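Hi, here's the filled form for the chain we discussed.

Project: internal
Contact: R.S.
Residues: 377
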Amino acid sequence: MPDYHARQAAFASHMSASGTDLAFLPVSADLEYLTGLRRRVLTFGNIEYAHSWVTGAFLAPGREPVFVLPRMVKEFDLPDGITGEVALVNERDNGEAIFGRVATSFGPVRRIGIGARTWGDTILQLQSALPGAELASASTLINLMRRVKSPEELAAMAGASRIATQVMGEVTPEVTAGVLELELARDIDYRMRQLGTRAPSFDTGVWGMGPRTNRDAGVRISAGPVEPGVGVSFDFGAEVEGYCSDFGRTVHVGEASAEFRRVYDTVMEAQAAGIRAARPGVPASAVHAATRQVIVDAGLGEWFRHRTGHGIGLDVHEKPFISEEDDTPLEAGMTFTIEPSVFRPGHYGARVEDVVVCEEGGGRKLSEYPTDMVERD
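And the returned structure, exactly as it came back:
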């Protein structure tokens, strides 16, 4: 089990150094990282109870966390309880009064950090309870801790990667002309659940692109059948102990053309270049540049429309981003994806994606699933 007290102490140091007196975090990866309060599996639509806006915890240097929870959250989302003081808000309670009483119990607050997923109603109540307090980002401070992974975190992420790669191996024989993209996606999600993930780490994508499919890569899945002569791209991930994986490969249906082979080989070479570049001290943007340059040199730069990758951990997309605008220096233990792609509607599509750990000699994949081209009848 993570040492939450040590994490809270480290966060308190960051708060003190930034002049932040108090922080409020809603239910989120940030709060789970610091306290162990697990997030429930997200749904497309919002799940809400009476007084849902109060849900979260206040943290301050030298104090135990104080959770403010609606009764329904405490009853059904915390079967094992939580370590720390809990201010419970029942359906007929005055939520504003209880929330304000907790907020003001920490003494004078000049600056309050708020989590990035804090609801607008919550922010309005914080401003009402702590008039004059400056609002700041708490998530920016927590990211300084979350971006570098401990051995235990890496073990959980490796487990999530193993689930994804095992499922890819099991589903690949199903990639044949006529199979529905929906069927492949269904089987991926089902197999991941069988192997122990609570839910996919994001919405599973399966899409074919080739001369007969003049579709954009932004259409992640269709109800139509896989056509002969297309590259079928996969994008999916699992979850283990709250940590995410993000994985991708492309399988060609039928014998690949020389053009597709060139595109595919270029994408794999681009990933290898990005992984080699991912060393401590190297800016994230330089890793993106190294990846992209391979594709540009092959004359395919116009069709590399994505960023190279993104940080990953308790959230499937975390900062830093492996992208042209992010100059964050990489550190040993950072985890991120390297996922170059080339998608030209009506012609071809190929992608690859792996989670990579930054180490002294360059990046290391958390899984060694092969990148050799696979052709299916």
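Let me know if anything looks off before we file it.
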